[in-house]
Amino acid sequence: MNKLxxxxxxxxxxxxxxxxxxxxxxxxDRALMNEATRITKxxxxxxxxxxxxxxxxxxxxxxxxMLAAIDRGLTDLFAVARQNNYRKRLNYSDYTxxxxxxxxxxxxxxxxxPDIAVGxxxxxxxxxxxxxxxxxxxxxxGYNPCAFVFAEHTKNFERVSEVVRYEGEHLVLYHNDRRLxxxxxxxxxxxxxxILN
Length: 197
Ligand SMILES: [Zn+2]
Fold this sequence. Notes:
The chain has 197 residues and is α/β, with parallel strands linked by helices. It has one domain. Helices cover 44% and strands 21% of the residues. The chain contains four helices and eight strands, in the order H-E-E-H-E-E-E-E-E-E-H-H. The strands form two sheets. A five-stranded mixed β-sheet has the order 1-2-3-8-7, with helices on both faces. Helix 2 packs parallel to helix 3 and helix 3 packs across helix 4. The radius of gyration is 19 Å and the shape is globular.
Protein backbone atom coordinates (compact mmCIF):
# COMPACT_ATOMS: atom_id res chain seq x y z
CA MET A 1 0.00 0.00 0.00
CA ASN A 2 2.73 2.41 1.10
CA LYS A 3 4.91 1.32 -1.76
CA LEU A 4 2.10 1.96 -4.21
CA UNK A 5 1.60 5.44 -2.77
CA UNK A 6 5.30 6.26 -3.18
CA UNK A 7 5.27 4.94 -6.70
CA UNK A 8 2.27 7.04 -7.65
CA UNK A 9 3.95 10.08 -6.08
CA UNK A 10 7.07 9.48 -8.18
CA UNK A 11 4.98 9.14 -11.29
CA UNK A 12 3.17 12.39 -10.48
CA UNK A 13 6.40 14.31 -9.93
CA UNK A 14 7.86 12.97 -13.15
CA UNK A 15 4.73 13.93 -15.07
CA UNK A 16 4.82 17.46 -13.66
CA UNK A 17 8.51 17.88 -14.54
CA UNK A 18 7.83 16.70 -18.03
CA UNK A 19 4.96 19.13 -18.33
CA UNK A 20 7.01 22.07 -17.06
CA UNK A 21 9.87 21.14 -19.35
CA UNK A 22 7.51 20.91 -22.31
CA UNK A 23 5.84 24.22 -21.56
CA UNK A 24 9.24 25.98 -21.24
CA UNK A 25 10.31 24.40 -24.51
CA UNK A 26 7.08 25.54 -26.17
CA UNK A 27 7.61 29.05 -24.83
CA UNK A 28 11.15 29.16 -26.22
CA ASP A 29 9.91 27.88 -29.56
CA ARG A 30 7.20 30.52 -29.63
CA ALA A 31 9.63 33.32 -28.70
CA LEU A 32 12.03 32.07 -31.34
CA MET A 33 9.28 31.84 -33.95
CA ASN A 34 8.20 35.41 -33.12
CA GLU A 35 11.77 36.63 -33.47
CA ALA A 36 12.24 34.82 -36.81
CA THR A 37 8.99 36.32 -38.12
CA ARG A 38 9.86 39.80 -36.83
CA ILE A 39 13.28 39.73 -38.55
CA THR A 40 12.27 38.15 -41.87
CA LYS A 41 8.55 39.06 -42.17
CA UNK A 42 8.04 35.41 -43.18
CA UNK A 43 6.02 32.64 -41.60
CA UNK A 44 7.42 29.14 -41.16
CA UNK A 45 4.66 26.55 -41.50
CA UNK A 46 7.03 23.63 -42.23
CA UNK A 47 8.68 21.87 -39.31
CA UNK A 48 11.11 19.02 -39.88
CA UNK A 49 14.51 17.62 -38.88
CA UNK A 50 17.75 17.04 -40.76
CA UNK A 51 18.86 13.38 -41.00
CA UNK A 52 21.33 14.05 -38.14
CA UNK A 53 18.71 15.71 -35.93
CA UNK A 54 18.91 19.51 -36.27
CA UNK A 55 15.47 21.12 -36.01
CA UNK A 56 14.22 23.00 -39.05
CA UNK A 57 11.45 25.55 -39.53
CA UNK A 58 10.96 26.60 -43.13
CA UNK A 59 8.78 28.65 -45.47
CA UNK A 60 8.64 25.65 -47.85
CA UNK A 61 9.47 21.96 -47.50
CA UNK A 62 13.29 21.75 -47.84
CA UNK A 63 14.61 19.04 -50.17
CA UNK A 64 17.12 16.32 -49.24
CA UNK A 65 20.05 18.28 -50.70
CA MET A 66 19.25 21.25 -48.50
CA LEU A 67 18.97 19.13 -45.35
CA ALA A 68 22.22 17.27 -46.12
CA ALA A 69 23.99 20.60 -46.73
CA ILE A 70 22.85 21.83 -43.31
CA ASP A 71 24.18 18.67 -41.64
CA ARG A 72 27.48 19.07 -43.51
CA GLY A 73 27.84 22.64 -42.26
CA LEU A 74 27.22 21.53 -38.67
CA THR A 75 29.67 18.63 -39.05
CA ASP A 76 32.37 21.08 -40.20
CA LEU A 77 31.48 23.43 -37.35
CA PHE A 78 31.72 20.70 -34.70
CA ALA A 79 35.06 19.48 -36.10
CA VAL A 80 36.69 22.90 -35.95
CA ALA A 81 35.13 23.54 -32.52
CA ARG A 82 36.68 20.31 -31.17
CA GLN A 83 40.06 21.33 -32.61
CA ASN A 84 39.77 24.42 -30.41
CA ASN A 85 38.86 22.27 -27.38
CA TYR A 86 35.29 23.52 -27.25
CA ARG A 87 32.86 20.94 -25.91
CA LYS A 88 29.47 22.63 -25.46
CA ARG A 89 26.62 22.63 -27.98
CA LEU A 90 28.24 20.19 -30.38
CA ASN A 91 25.12 18.11 -30.99
CA TYR A 92 22.96 18.45 -34.08
CA SER A 93 19.88 18.55 -31.88
CA ASP A 94 21.23 21.66 -30.10
CA TYR A 95 20.45 23.68 -33.24
CA THR A 96 17.19 25.18 -34.50
CA UNK A 97 17.47 26.57 -38.02
CA UNK A 98 14.98 28.74 -39.90
CA UNK A 99 14.91 28.74 -43.70
CA UNK A 100 13.41 32.04 -44.88
CA UNK A 101 12.35 33.38 -48.27
CA UNK A 102 15.27 34.97 -50.13
CA UNK A 103 14.92 38.77 -50.39
CA UNK A 104 17.42 38.72 -53.23
CA UNK A 105 19.07 35.90 -55.18
CA UNK A 106 21.99 37.82 -56.68
CA UNK A 107 24.61 40.00 -55.07
CA UNK A 108 25.97 43.25 -56.55
CA UNK A 109 28.33 41.27 -58.80
CA UNK A 110 25.45 39.14 -60.17
CA UNK A 111 26.64 36.02 -58.33
CA UNK A 112 23.99 33.59 -57.05
CA UNK A 113 23.59 34.74 -53.46
CA PRO A 114 20.21 34.13 -51.77
CA ASP A 115 20.16 36.55 -48.84
CA ILE A 116 17.73 38.02 -46.36
CA ALA A 117 17.15 41.74 -45.85
CA VAL A 118 17.34 42.78 -42.20
CA GLY A 119 17.17 46.14 -40.40
CA UNK A 120 20.54 47.93 -40.65
CA UNK A 121 20.93 48.55 -36.85
CA UNK A 122 24.65 48.88 -36.11
CA UNK A 123 25.41 48.55 -39.82
CA UNK A 124 23.60 51.83 -40.60
CA UNK A 125 25.86 54.12 -42.61
CA UNK A 126 28.40 51.35 -43.25
CA UNK A 127 29.24 49.91 -46.68
CA UNK A 128 26.63 47.21 -45.99
CA UNK A 129 23.78 49.73 -45.57
CA UNK A 130 21.33 49.59 -48.51
CA UNK A 131 19.02 52.29 -47.14
CA UNK A 132 17.92 51.20 -43.67
CA UNK A 133 18.50 47.51 -44.24
CA UNK A 134 21.35 45.20 -45.16
CA UNK A 135 21.48 41.91 -47.00
CA UNK A 136 22.78 39.10 -44.84
CA UNK A 137 23.58 35.50 -45.74
CA UNK A 138 22.45 34.46 -42.27
CA UNK A 139 21.61 35.80 -38.87
CA UNK A 140 21.68 34.48 -35.31
CA UNK A 141 18.21 34.45 -33.71
CA GLY A 142 18.87 33.03 -30.26
CA TYR A 143 21.31 31.28 -27.96
CA ASN A 144 19.07 28.90 -25.96
CA PRO A 145 18.37 26.97 -28.06
CA CYS A 146 21.08 27.84 -30.58
CA ALA A 147 19.17 29.31 -33.51
CA PHE A 148 19.78 31.16 -36.75
CA VAL A 149 18.11 31.92 -40.07
CA PHE A 150 19.27 31.88 -43.67
CA ALA A 151 17.57 31.99 -47.10
CA GLU A 152 16.22 29.22 -49.33
CA HIS A 153 18.64 27.95 -51.98
CA THR A 154 17.76 26.05 -55.17
CA LYS A 155 21.41 25.36 -56.13
CA ASN A 156 24.97 25.94 -54.90
CA PHE A 157 24.30 24.02 -51.69
CA GLU A 158 27.98 24.35 -50.67
CA ARG A 159 27.03 27.90 -49.81
CA VAL A 160 24.36 26.56 -47.43
CA SER A 161 26.97 24.46 -45.60
CA GLU A 162 29.20 27.51 -45.37
CA VAL A 163 26.47 29.80 -44.02
CA VAL A 164 25.50 27.17 -41.45
CA ARG A 165 29.08 26.74 -40.32
CA TYR A 166 29.62 30.51 -40.13
CA GLU A 167 26.43 31.36 -38.21
CA GLY A 168 27.18 28.38 -35.97
CA GLU A 169 30.58 29.87 -35.13
CA HIS A 170 28.90 32.72 -33.25
CA LEU A 171 26.78 30.24 -31.26
CA VAL A 172 29.63 27.88 -30.40
CA LEU A 173 31.73 30.85 -29.29
CA TYR A 174 28.89 32.23 -27.17
CA HIS A 175 28.74 28.98 -25.22
CA ASN A 176 32.45 28.14 -25.15
CA ASP A 177 34.52 31.34 -25.36
CA ARG A 178 32.53 34.42 -24.40
CA ARG A 179 35.50 36.79 -24.84
CA LEU A 180 36.17 35.74 -28.43
CA UNK A 181 32.41 35.76 -29.02
CA UNK A 182 32.22 39.45 -28.03
CA UNK A 183 35.23 40.34 -30.15
CA UNK A 184 33.78 38.74 -33.27
CA UNK A 185 29.97 39.06 -33.03
CA UNK A 186 29.69 42.44 -34.76
CA UNK A 187 31.01 42.54 -38.33
CA UNK A 188 30.23 46.25 -38.80
CA UNK A 189 33.69 47.09 -37.41
CA UNK A 190 35.31 44.66 -39.87
CA UNK A 191 36.16 41.00 -39.43
CA UNK A 192 34.28 38.10 -40.96
CA UNK A 193 34.37 34.32 -41.30
CA UNK A 194 35.79 31.84 -40.71
CA ILE A 195 36.56 32.88 -37.15
CA LEU A 196 37.72 29.40 -36.11
CA ASN A 197 40.54 27.51 -37.81
ZN1 LIG B 1 29.01 36.37 -38.63
